[in-house]
Amino acid sequence: MAFLIDSIFTKPEQASKLFASFTTPVWLLLVAQCVYLAGSIVSALLCLWSRLYPPWKISSVLESEGVRRGDGQTYPQESLGFFQLIGHFQHDQYEERLKTLDHEVELAILAFQLVEVSKNVTRKHLLVDCGFLFAGLSLFFSLLAGGFYVWSL
Quick one: how far is CA 112 from the chain centroid? Predict the structure, then answer.
């Protein structure tokens, strides 16, 4: 990358001559390379996105649920299994709240969280797969463009 940037910015007249010698297929392959590289980057960014609340929204989510940190009885059942919200509960109040749950509610909380985590992990694996595929295609089109360029000389 440094070689390409150095060549373009320190010797613009040579870069102009080089670009003028590119044929239409070379340009199309370079465009495909850029598109797939961008797709790989987008896949990586989407993979990093999680089902987490942004830090500035957590307080409003807890407030809208009626949560009072010092009162475990206000901790909603749906939030008792979500690690991001658990981190905002008081340990002793959270423990006491868990003791009030019956077996059926515990199973419902666990099942809900497992299904949600499973969806999230499956989505991330798909995005990682797409990212690798796009990166590979980007490299392939880059090599193909280089080959077409050399062949056209």
Answer: 22
